[in-house]
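Quick start: read one record
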Amino acid sequence: MAAKHHQILIVGGGAAGITVAARLRKTEHDIPLDIAIVDPADSHYYQAAFTLVGGGAYDLEDTRRNEADLIPQDVTWVKDAVSTFAPDSNSVSLTDGTTITYDYLVVCPGLQINWSGIPGLKEYVGRYGVCSNYSANTVEYTFEVLKNLKPGARALFTQAPMPIKCPGAPQKIVYLAADHLTKRGIRTHCDVRFLTATPAIFGVPFYAKELVKVAARYNVPVSYNHNLVEIDGRKQKATFAVTAGDQQGQTVTLDFDMLHVTPPQSAPDFVKTSPLANTTGFVDVHANSLQHLKYKNVFSLGDAAGTANSKTAAAVRKQAPVVVRNLRHLLRKEAVEEGYDGYGACPLTTAYGKVLMAEFIYGGKPTPTLPLDPRKERYVNWWIKTTGLPMLYWDYMLKGREAFPSHNTAYVDPAA
């Protein structure tokens, strides 16, 4: 079978792939482009709202669109998955045996959720109070469990080792759960705990200081360096390995009525085993240009890129224009630019109606978009989280339209 060929091949039809394709289409006036997207999914989800779904504040169906409706006009949709990359021959192989060659490759398949990475998780998620906001198939069960908790209930919330999608998501649902129980008048009669595999509550100290206060306000104890390693759903017991501190090397087993699990995550297997991967399994790209360090006609963005930014849709919003401009530079035989500064954002839901908007770049430097103290929880941020960002995602970002102000790279902490 003769190999198919496309000038620009995009692997992944999520936020990154659709955005790059749409922006390429809008900038091709002087150079017509042949673009294809490889993705097997029928549905496309706005995953940033999954926390709200799990907290009962958003409908799952409102996060979903048909993938076919989002593929930009005149972009070929290859409805299959990649099995292997062969960058030395500028080709990829699909699971159906098809080979596609390319002039330029953009790799953005997202993260792989490793449900089998914790014994008992795959078996019990969706039953016995074991829930997770990290899948469209499981997120609605989170609120089902939460709303049925009774006085005396034990609710555990976990965070897996990095990297994970949206590092703030595991604690967002903690605060919504605590607020929900408070509104029902049973918070003081329930044991709510947050156990994270990380050594701090959040990776950016500027915001971590505030989040420690939020957890304390809800009287939620935070156990650091506690990694969930086993679940017995029938007995409703969760076992954690302690990876640092006085109990390092020991295990702790806790009873639960609700166990919200952040599953371990990684780059997809077909990326990890490819010549494109670095030692951590992610695509080996330059932190600022997003160009592959060895294969100069390859770019990567989004969650599968081997960059140190927070893995969020907000990062994609800033990465996609850089990738598109650099593809255009290569088409014109020009040098690439190093335009991505590591921007990421995490709207941290701290209550129903309150959000702390964490925005930052490489090095953990805060870069708020609005001229407000970014450490404060605000209702306006709740509106942005629940209404503004979804609208901008569907109607602007995925259509290749720019409607976002620049973040403030000159912010100085007045308390510093």
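The longest helix spans residues 313-331.
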